[in-house]
Amino acid sequence: MTRFTRSLSVLGLAVALGGCGILYRPDVQQGSLLSKPIVDQLKPGMSKRQVTLLLGTPSVTSPFENDRWDYVSSIQRRGGKIATKNLTLTFENDALARIEGDYFPEDPQQLIKDAKKYRVEFPDEKRPDDKKKGGRG
After folding, report:
1. How far apart are CA 128 and CA 26, in angstroms?
2. In this model, does residue 63 exceed pLDDT 80?
């Protein structure tokens, strides 16, 4: 009976620690997920509707400042420090006037390194190219 109680206690402790995030902490990203090529398409003079079609609705709008839209994103990697990004768009007479913020300050080499970490290889990508062998086609 003692061995069963000990095993049950160890199992309960493992489940409790797993639920607390001590054993594994995933990356957590929240907010507006914008890509640099999309944001680069923003041009002064675009209407609010055009901006909405391009980027989606803003994360934050103020009832007191209708001419300012904020797209906010945060990421926390493996339970570390939270990094926040902000892209602020200012409109004048319903036309885009200014684009400000620190949404893409990352080092391009670091982004490539992070992207490779999450890359999934599919079986089709591992086999040799059939066209070179004169196979199917």
Report:
1. 34
2. yes
